[in-house]
Amino acid sequence: MNFNKRKLTALADECKKRDIFPSELIRYYDIQHDSPHKLAETLYPLIQEASEYLYLLNEQEREMILDDLRSQIFASFPSEPVFSDPDHVKKLAACLVAHELSEIYISFENLIKVDYGKSELFKKFPEIIKKFDKEENIIKIDDEIELADAGIIYRDYLIYYHKFLCRNFTGRINRDFISKFISYYNVTKSKNIFWIAIDPNRLIPKEQYYRFIELDTWYGPPYSEKNIDSLKHAGLTVIGRNKNTKMVFSNNIRSTEFFWEIDGIIKSLKVEELSEDQRTYYLNRFFHSQRDTSNQKFIHLDGKVNVYLPQMYNERLDNTFPKAKKPYRSVKLFRIDGNIKTEDWSEIMSYFYKGNEMVIEYLNPEEYKKNFLANE
Question: How much is the pLDDT for 376?
Answer without folding.
Answer: 44
